[in-house]
Amino acid sequence: MKSPGNSEQVELNRSLGLWSALSLVIGTIIGVGIFVRQAAVINEAGSAKAALLAWLAGGLLTLAAGLTIAEIASQNPSTGGLYAYMEQIYNQFWGFLSGWMQIIVYGPAMIAALGSYLAVLVGDFFNTAPIWHLPIALGSVCLVGILNMFPNRYGGAFAIITTICKLVPVAALIIFGLFFGRADAFSSSIQGLQTTAGGFGVAMLATLFAFDGWILVANLGGEIKNPRKMLPRAITLGILTVMGIYLLVSYGVLKSIGAQKVHDLGTAAIPYIAQKDFGQIGGKILSIGIIISIIGCMNGKIMTFPRIMYAMAKQDQLPWSKKLAYLNRKTRTPIFSIIAVIVIAGLMIVLTNPDRISELCIFTIYCFYVMAFVGLFLLRRRNPNQPRVFSVPLFPLTPLLAIAGSLFVIGSEILSDPIGVIVSLSIVAVGCPVYYFKVMRKHHN
């Protein structure tokens, strides 16, 4: 094995095609949200029709965001995604902060939260004692991490397999709801909630969180074949596919048992439908589907977040940059960056509540989203005559819609969790002295 100092001789393997990229978009979006957020959306919307409209509105806002980023990605298909875009549009400081937040807190917290939830589901499936939850969570994160130390085609193939597997229970819910459901999926409402519900806006906010993760495939810009064309296609087709799936699942659930029953059952609504339609074996099949869904989602995140760390380390912006920028000569993967993200995620599983930490970062990630969306206008003004492989349709309406949706999330977070917003900003602020000592001092010297 060569020393880390020779890592510049090895390049990332540009081997991922459209199907791998598309599976990563779908796989990183569809985790557990579609299975557990049905009741939350209906409770806030107050009626079946309003709930379906909330899912549609959330999908359209996400699509607007995806189309906006797709144009930026077509011009700068670099490894690092949002980090690379922020650096290109603004400067190295803003790029660093967006990357810092993603690799130190947001990404590892999301991976850790998925591992913790997976451990509970696996424990319930095999009736194991709660004492096994911690080793199962840590073991699952480590195993998926090891998979991603092999050439990226293995992670890409795994994304395709898990995406297909997770769509089997989703398809069953849709088919049985559409063809065998007897409830009124459009006009049913929840008694007593119409006046107390948080309203359509809060319901839409719940769906936006279920759509999050679409941008992560952009972190693999240096490993996707013909990324200027493939990235926009993968992002657009992926979001459209997920939007269709979410709408059909929600409609199928409402047609199966109605809005009132979904409200009464809460997060148990979909397991109830599975057992009602398929018997006891249905519950087991659904549990397997959710477990596979979580593993696939975790694979997408472990595959993408270390690429941000690798891209930052290549520019010597992080402590131990030589190690973190190292690519294994045989696998051509950033193994030390993968290990670093796994270690941080593991510490979060053991020491913190990773689900809460990932929630805290929602505010700052959407702040960076807004800056990136505004950046499209800046790029067009700077380079008015530059030919574009992909142009966002309905410009400027589409990026304006993306900005409005992100500002809605930011405003909602400020109103609902001001302490969390302060903590979120503090996490980003910690990156400032790191940037100064690692980047600015290097320039001054």
What does this protein look like?
GO terms for molecular function: L-amino acid transmembrane transporter activity. It is found in: Membrane. Keywords: Membrane, Transmembrane, Transmembrane helix. This is Amino acid transport protein. Pfam families: AA_permease_2 (PF13520). The chain is mainly alpha-helical and 445 residues long. It has a single domain (4-444), classed as Amino acid/polyamine transporter I (Up-down Bundle). The protein is built from 18 helices and no strands. It is globular, with a radius of gyration of 22 Å. Mean pLDDT is 87; it is low at 1-8.
Taking the alpha carbons of the first and last residues, their distance comes to 32 Å
Q: So what's the overall shape?
A: globular
Question: What's the architecture, going by CATH?
Answer: Up-down Bundle
Order of helices and strands: HHHHHHHHHHHHHHHHHH
The averaged pLDDT comes out at: 87
How much of the polypeptide forms β-strand, as a percent range?
Answer: under 5%
Which percent range fits the helix content?
over 70%
How many distinct helices?
Answer: 18
The top level CATH class name: Mainly Alpha
Care to count the β-strands? 0
What name is given to the CATH topology?
Amino acid/polyamine transporter I
Domain unit count: 1
Uncertain runs: 1-8
Main sheet record: none
CATH homologous superfamily designation: Amino acid/polyamine transporter I
Q: Taking Cα atoms only, what radius of gyration do you get, to the nearest Å?
A: 22 Å
Question: Which class do the helix and strand fractions yield?
Answer: mainly alpha
